[in-house]
Amino acid sequence: MAYSTPYDYNEDSIRQLDEKFSEIEHDRFLYCIQEQQKWDIEKVNNFIAQLRTSHMYALKELDRLKKLEPTYNKEYPTNHKRYITTAQEVVSRMSSTLSGLKKIVAEFRNKGKNKKEVSIMDNTPLYTGPYMQDLFGWDTYKDQSAQDLLQELNSFLEDAQKCIDIAVKMIEDEIAISQDPETAYPIYIDNYYRSVSDSRLFIKMIESQRPDLDNDFVKALEEAEDSKKLIASLFHSFNRERFNLNCACVAIHEGKKAELTKEESLIWGLDNETKVKRLRLLLDHILELSEEIDGVIGWKGMLKGYFVMRLLYWCGWNGTKNDAILNYITKRCKGKIEVVKMSAVMAEKRKLAALTASEDAAQQQAFNRRIDAFIDDLEEKATK
User: Fold this and answer.
1) pLDDT (tens digit, 9 = 90+) per residue, 256-272?
2) What tens digit of pLDDT does each residue of 329-355 get?
């Protein structure tokens, strides 16, 4: 009789496995080792050693799945699927667990000459078929080896069941998200903004290659009757690198509509064209600002580190050592005034540790009001 693997790479087989794990009762177990295989004590002890090794690997895989589960379906792209299916991904993470299971059921399978392929999970008296109660019971194994084997077997099956439960939940959650635009779209937007905010990555991308603004994803979004439904259907369809490239293309495409440059689109992403245009206006009149506000120009006639730090926060800076916004400001000020390096900005940021959170917030709010009032005045003059 031919036997198929109990873990094919598809979602249905994972669900079927979920139904197979249950505690094996001692009468059925004794029937298997006595009547089916005629195991002696030595064979029982050898199999205990093999099973414990499989169990050790299963526990490691269970730990990996537990770490993956909380974030897996919160990420729109994924590098985990190896570009095929979630079932394949979770199976690859349970390879040792399922290999151990296969060894178990292979040892306790029904033998026959039928060449028709059947699943060994459906052809073992451990799970299915009639059995007879063993006459001597545990007494056949005086050294407790059979009891130890059953205990180890059920312990292994319990942890293997936990792996399967996590796998099934991940698959079911993924399917539900891909069919629910109202759930999938916020995940997409969150991942989109995190991608475009990684300005160092995108500026490097722009400098090294030209993104294809007419790529399939951008075209599909433009042509879709329901873009949110399309986005949901593509959940977990991209790896991280491809998703980042798509986000760059979308950001540039949308920014172009708002008359933003590629660099501006990639630094600030969607829905920030007003902020970008106000920043442009400010930097075009930076010398006028220095005449109205103290503390703009410092040593050697450069923009002061403190001023630049506060301006970066006004721009949406997250406080990390990310040069993208500073590089943009430096280029925009070229020919008018020099700008300090990031080291000077970070030095000023470290000084904030001496302030309470409320003091820091109050200083930033005061700075923002002054900058916004100056830009408002410039915009008002431009309309006259």
Assistant:
1) 888 888 788 778 866 67
2) 999 999 999 999 999 999 999 999 999
Answer yes or no: pTM beyond 0.70.
no
What is the distance between the alpha carbons of residues 88 and 10, in angstroms, rounded to a whole number? 7
| C-beta of residue 297 within 8 angstroms of C-beta of residue 303 | yes
| pLDDT tens profile 220-253 | 998 999 999 999 999 998 888 889 888 888 887 8
Residues 6+ apart with CB under 8 A from 116: 1, 2
